[in-house]
Amino acid sequence: MIRVSVVGAQGRMGASVVQAVEAAQDMQIAQKITENDDIAAVTADNTDVAVEFTVPSAALDNVLKLIAQGVSVVVGTTGWTDEKLDRVKAALADAPHQGQAVFIAPNFAISAVLADKFAAEAAKYFTSAEVIELHHPNKVDAPSGTAIHTAHAIAAARREAGCAQMPDATQGEVASRGQSVDGVHVHAVRLQGLNAHEEVLLGNAGEQLVIRADSFDRASFMPGVLLAVRNVASGEHPGLTVGLDTFLDL
Any idea where the Dihydrodipicolinate reductase N-terminal domain is (predicted)? Predict the structure, then answer.
């Protein structure tokens, strides 16, 4: 049995993770850490993998504490920068147990991971590409980590293919064009009734390709979370890994 502790168990995603782990035949809940609990209760003696679903402002400190306590971590909280990732890598280099791992996923939904992959494959064939992400109004970060990851993947594919800069005649500081992420414009919508959705628009003269992924319920993320927990618990992926596509045959 894989012993799983959930950090952020009081949240919507954390509570869903608790239910998914309890329903899995090869896992059991070790610790349920809420905002009022001490994360020091999660140790290598009682936990094989910790799942961290909190808020961007707390995630880095939580992950660094768990590493220091000898625990491998699956992270669903977004808001990771290169600087934060470097701090995680440095902490893992000094981790108390050999083979400790941290896995960070911009998105755990299989549909979103595939959409990201398809967008990167398609980007080199189109003159223009933009990303629209749509979420519920309680989401605290914008643009979403998924959309940022998608934009970076599109930009990397275009650079590798030697694509020209995307045409855009707008001038000056135009806020309505969305945030430019690695040269790709990303637009964030926060609307009551939505859950988690992403559209990638790719255009050439006279044609358009739209790639869209919709997660209507948090249940859509749980197979990806359990897949990540199993892979981290296997000990075959030490160090820092980013992106669920690592564990899929893509």
Answer: 2-108
